[in-house]
Design goal:
about 300 residues; alpha/beta; 2 domains; six-stranded parallel β-sheet; three-stranded mixed β-sheet; globular; NAD(P)-bd_dom_sf; HIBADH-like_NADP-bd; oxidoreductase; carbohydrate metabolism; NADP
Length: about 300
């Protein structure tokens, strides 16, 4: 870069943290925003600048928003300590939050009315790819915004799909991705729970299916969590309660039938209501195991 470009990353969770570190490696001046003091301390050790709220960051060239939902996005953008308090006109905001397309479009309209540029930029790939700067971005927005954010997008991603100039297209494609992701996690849990009920060795089953026709990215990624009984949250059950809720709600509006999504959503909701909401999303397997009166690795008793 001919000059050091300033990037703010709001939300240093698994994806935002990886994006922020990738921007640092690429030579950006990176400001990280999070409500957790321990995360901010860790970010400073990595060479970033840490802030407890977006208003404190001052001006940046690009702002990535990696919070959990549309309510949080609205707060960090337009709230009393939101990013618009200090953003300069023309700043490019990349909305990386998984939201209903209608929510994305509403926030984008408000940002545009305030003189900002907006890219609808939900992401996928998980925390490992985020750390490597290899996430997939499903993006839509004006060409000028893409031109201004090109270096930043290159730093965090392996692939940017430019889906058109209309904000909302990115969120619609991400919704389809989350439909498949949620259903595949539920299917992984169902398959490995059945394997356990049949007395099969879970590691052996995983090794076989991983290289067979029944595999999926989610099976390969979440299967080891169930096999090892490790439900440390990389992506929590509550995330898919939200995301599959978006899928089924938007499907109803569109007149589309999503029975598999509805079944998976019911399983995630049951897991959340059973106190597993903050565990890894693969913990839905525990619900199926309890129904079958079996114990998976990591389950007490």
């Amino acid at each position: 870069m001919t000059r050091q470009v300033t990037a703010t990353v709001i939300g240093l969770g698994s994806m935002g943290w990886g994006a922020a570190l990738s921007l640092l490696r690429a030579g950006f001046d990176v400001k990280g925003v999070d409500i957790r003091s321990d995360v901010l301390a860790s970010f400073e050790k990595e060479g970033g600048k840490a802030y407890p709220d977006a208003a404190s960051t001052g001006e940046s060239d690009v702002v990535f928003v990696f919070v959990v939902n549309s309510r949080q996005a609205e707060e960090v953008l337009f709230g009393e300590r939101g990013a618009l308090k200090s953003a300069k006109a023309g700043t490019v905001f990349l909305l990386c939050v998984t939201m209903a397309p209608s929510a994305t479009m509403e926030l984008a309209e408000r940002l545009s009315s305030a003189g900002m540029q907006v890219i609808d930029a939900p992401v996928s790939g998980g925390h490992i790819k985020a750390l490597a700067g290899e996430i997939t971005v499903m993006a839509s927005g004006p060409d000028q915004a893409f031109d201004h954010a090109a270096l930043a997008l290159d730093a965090v991603s392996a692939k940017v799909f430019r889906l058109g100039s209309e904000v909302g297209l990115g969120s619609k494609v991400k919704m389809i991705n989350q439909l498949l992701a949620g259903v595949h996690i539920a299917a992984t849990a169902e398959a490995l729970t059945l394997a356990a009920a049949e007395g099969l060795d879970l590691q052996t089953v995983f090794d076989v299916i991983r290289v067979s026709a029944g595999s999926s990215w989610m099976f390969e990624n979440r299967g080891p969590h169930i096999v090892d009984g490790d439900y440390t949250p990389r992506s929590a059950v509550n995330i898919f309660v939200k995301d599959l809720g978006i899928v089924t709600s938007e499907a109803d509006k569109a007149g589309a039938s999503t029975p598999l999504s509805a079944a998976a959503l019911a399983l995630f909701k049951e897991a959340a209501e059973s106190g597993l909401g903050l565990e890894d999303d693969a913990a839905v397997a525990k619900i199926l195991a309890e129904r079958a009166s079996i114990k998976l690795p990591g389950m007490e008793g």
